[in-house]
Request: fold
Amino acid sequence: MSGEPEVVDIYTDGACSGNPGPGGWGAILRWNGQEREMFGYAPDTTNNRMEMTAVIEALRSLKRPVPTRVHTDSQYVQKGMIEWIHGWKRRGWKTAGKEPVKNEDLWRTLDRLAAGHEIEWLWVRGHAGHPENERADALARRGIELKRGS
Reply:
């Protein structure tokens, strides 16, 4: 085993049937040649909430702090975590326009979970043939479809 730190690559996506509407999220975790797929459902939600939930659930599944790369097609999630969240926290979870931050509950959870890891936030273009993004999208849609079938 080399001295290189183990890195977990997380590929996430969220989907909604209507916005708001029934939603699903999907995540693929890859480390040391292994993979794990995850997905889930929410009955009445938005696409942004599902994008965030995918990352939250993937981070929750990590057993210990580890260097992580989060690959998301959501600029809302990526920019939120590397640009916007710092100002929101300084302003007491208000936007620059003094409005309450949308999805504050999920942003707080994501911030808390991310603090335990060294994370690189990477944006990938959605629906552009990125294999893992396409798989995460399919998992998110599976979350919606499985619930419909139950």
Remarks:
- The chain has four helices and five strands.
- Residues 65 and 117 are 5 Å apart (CA to CA).
- Helices lie at 47-60, 75-90, 104-114, 131-149.
